[in-house]
Amino acid sequence: MSAPRTSLRLRVVPGTARPGVVGRHGDAWKVRVTAPAEAGKANAAVVTLLAGVLDLPRRRLSLTSGLSSRDKVVAVEGLSVEAADARLTAAAEKT
Question: How many domains does the chain have?
C-alpha cells in the first residue's frame, strides 16, 4: 500500500506581521507568511510553515502550482486529506 498523497489549495498573504493559518478561504486554506513575495521567499516560507503545522519534513511537501500567484497548490506526501484538514483546522483555531 502506498503512502497517501494530498493536494492542498492555498491562498497566501505574504509580508504580514505574523505567520500562520488563518482558516478556510472558499475551497482553499488561507495562510499568512512574513516573507515578501519576491525571489521565491514567500514560497519557501509557505512550505516551511506547512511542514511545521502538518508535522512533516519539508521534503514531503512540494509547490506544484502558483509559483508567482497568491493561489497555490502544495502536494503533501504521507498524509491523508482528512489528517491534513484536521491539523490545519487546529492551527487556525490557535491564531
Answer: 1
Tens of pLDDT, residue by residue over 11-70, are: 999 999 999 999 999 999 999 999 999 999 999 999 999 999 999 999 999 999 999 999
Name residues whose C-beta falls within 8 Å of residue 55's C-beta, 6 or more positions apart in sequence: 87
- Residue 60's alpha-carbon distances to 5, 17, 19, in angstroms, are 10, 27, 21
CATH number, domain containing residue 60: 3.30.1200.10
How many whole angstroms separate alpha carbon 89 and alpha carbon 64?
Answer: 22
* Local structure of residue 59 (DSSP, 8 states): G
Q: If DSSP codes are grouped into helix, strand and coil, which group holds residue 19?
A: coil
d(CA 46, CA 13): 10
In the chain, at which residue ranges do the beta strands (DSSP E only) sit? 5-13, 20-25, 28-32, 61-65, 71-77
